[in-house]
Amino acid sequence: MTTEELFVEVQKALEEIRPFLNSDGGDITLISIEDNKHVKVRLEGACTSCSVNQMTLRAGVETTIKKFAPQIETVVNIL
Description:
Blueprint: H1 3-23, E1 26-34, E2 38-45, H2 53-68, E3 74-77
Parallel strand pairs: 2-3
Antiparallel strand pairs: 1-2
Helix pairs in contact: 1-2
């Protein structure tokens, strides 16, 4: 998968998870993809102060991204 294709797949994953975040007053933005295997995102809105945002990041965001782009190894939230 090319870098451009990977970017598109990660964006598709974020579009799939975004409605769930929006329903709780949050959102997510893709910051970067490094070495085609490390994704940096920014949780926004209500997600920044939510006590379970790390669980959301791992169980929701990371799982969804890996479904679209299995080569992704890590997903981190950038403040």
